[in-house]
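TICKET: design request
STATUS: open
ATTACHED STRUCTURE:
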């Protein structure tokens, strides 16, 4: 079912049917979107349930002023960033670094099936500030147009392009250092 057809269900008050179609249409995409932030299958599954609960709760207030895609991605991205912030606070209270925790998750992930270059890329991405990470993940992995990312994040297209450029430079620098052996 298309987003337009789902929006018609919502506007017609058929919330349960619309929600079921949203879950069918977006579960896998949102799983991978959130997974790239969290680097953990278990955390991603848990957060995905919370995201869909928020979608269910907010569904009656969806007015169709934005696309369903950008609306759902905004909810998912905000929840992922909030979750990362909570993790950062928990790690600070334990006097340990979230960067090292995320690196350990990437290294120990039984679901990871990439090579060392992909592992290094994942580690580099985890070192980015939250906004740069979000922009980089959506642009690099999902190839979402800047205009849609702008709607998802509520940031101007120009600022997103600058964030992506900075993120790409940081990732390249990290990879050169890690893989290239530069100090």
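STATUS: resolved
RESOLUTION: sequence designed for all positions
ATTACHED SEQUENCE:
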């Amino acid at each position: 079912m298309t987003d337009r057809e789902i929006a018609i269900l919502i506007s017609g008050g058929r919330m349960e049917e619309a929600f079921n179609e949203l879950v069918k249409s977006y579960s896998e995409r949102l799983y991978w979107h959130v997974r790239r932030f969290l680097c953990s299958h278990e955390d991603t599954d848990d957060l995905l349930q919370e995201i869909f609960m928020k979608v269910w709760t907010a569904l009656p207030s969806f007015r169709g002023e934005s696309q369903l895609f950008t609306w759902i991605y905004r909810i998912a991205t905000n929840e992922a960033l909030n979750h990362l912030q909570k993790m950062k606070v928990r790690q600070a209270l334990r006097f340990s670094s979230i960067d090292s925790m995320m690196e350990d998750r990437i290294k120990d992930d039984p679901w990871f099936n990439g090579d060392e270059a992909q592992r290094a890329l994942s580690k580099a991405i985890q070192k980015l500030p939250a906004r740069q990470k979000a922009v980089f993940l959506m642009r690099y992995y999902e190839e979402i147009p800047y205009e849609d990312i702008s709607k998802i994040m509520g940031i101007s297209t120009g600022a997103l392009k600058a964030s992506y450029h900075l993120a790409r430079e940081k990732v390249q620098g990290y990879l050169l250092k890690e893989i290239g052996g530069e100090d």
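CLOSING REMARK: The chain has a mean pLDDT of 87. The chain is about 80% helix and 0% strand.
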